[in-house]
Amino acid sequence: MKIYLCVDDTDDMNKETSTGAVAEAIGRALAKEGAQIEEGISRHQLLLHPGISYTSHNSAMCLSFCLGGQGLSLERIEAIAEETILAYKADTANPGLAICMGDTPQKRDALLAFGLRAKRDVLTQDQAYALAAEMPEVTLRSLGGDGSGVIGALAGLGLRLSRNDGTFRGKKGVYLHGKSLTVAQMKEALGVEQIVDAKGIPLADHQEVMVEQFVKVSLQKGKRSAVLSGRKKGNCFILSSEREEKKNGPEAAYCPDFLPDPDEEEQVGEGQSCGRCLYRRWTANGHECQKPVSSGEGG
């Protein structure tokens, strides 16, 4: 049986931890007790809205696994996740935990609908709990704070179940920086099933592609995918880091309040810029600085 587990809102602006790091720690703890972790941890972007409390990006983290020979019970899975979240979470966080035992089309459709709504609407905890109550196989729990993390946790669960949303935690292909390979060679090097353009159309195996910085692997139509940036060098297509659209902030080389963001999933490029600052927060209209600068113009 495949099991899906999603967490949300375990960090704060101090970023001593991150939701991705918490999900990774849960995966390690489960693996120690025989669970077989599949594919990796996926990040699912939810709505950016002033009516929603989030740290910097409003994203949930989800992992899937199969039970090993020891046959972990739901109670033990819950206990491992709860112990890990409580050990790693920030004191001011509002963590939520969602677990789905198995997968059926009906369950997947209902949870996906909730996840898609969470990308465009401000949802409530009552709505999340009401949906979870209709599904005996789904567990939804608040583990502190105001409980708002349950919304993102359930939404992330549905989006992962769709297998057509999110990017996997970690940077791929850094060692391939500047190297041109055929699509067939690049797929093998990155461990992906396809390389697609912005419309999701796969490239032919003979075409040439290049990693400019690193690659974020995404789930598209059930396949691990690398996506093109839309740019080329000669006849060579350049793969996207999936952060290029967030490089529109001014450089912050002289911002006295700059503080590096320790979460690799929320950094952009290299050097000292607003995109790498702990205090930037993404909104529907771009990014905002969460700490007033002490002089000059900040990020």
Task: Describe, in plain words, how this protein is organized in 3D.
This protein has helices at 19-32, 74-88, 105-118, 125-133, 149-162, 183-190; strands at 2-8, 36-45, 59-66, 96-101, 138-142, 167-168, 180-182, 194-196, 208-211, 218-220, 223-233, 236-239, 280-283, 286-289. With 299 residues, the chain is an alpha+beta fold. The protein has a 6-stranded antiparallel β-sheet with strand order 5-4-1-3-2-6, with helices on both faces. Residues 244-252 and 295-299 have low confidence and may be disordered.
Supply the key terms.
Alpha-Beta Plaits; six-stranded mixed sheet; 14 strands; 3 domains; globular; single chain; alpha+beta; 299 residues
Topology:
Blueprint: E1 2-8, H1 19-32, E2 36-45, E3 59-66, H2 74-88, E4 96-101, H3 105-118, H4 125-133, E5 138-142, H5 149-162, E6 167-168, E7 180-182, H6 183-190, E8 194-196, E9 208-211, E10 218-220, E11 223-233, E12 236-239, E13 280-283, E14 286-289
Parallel strand pairs: 8-11, 9-12
Antiparallel strand pairs: 1-3, 1-4, 2-3, 2-6, 4-5, 7-9, 10-11, 11-12, 13-14
Helix pairs in contact: 1-2, 3-5, 4-5
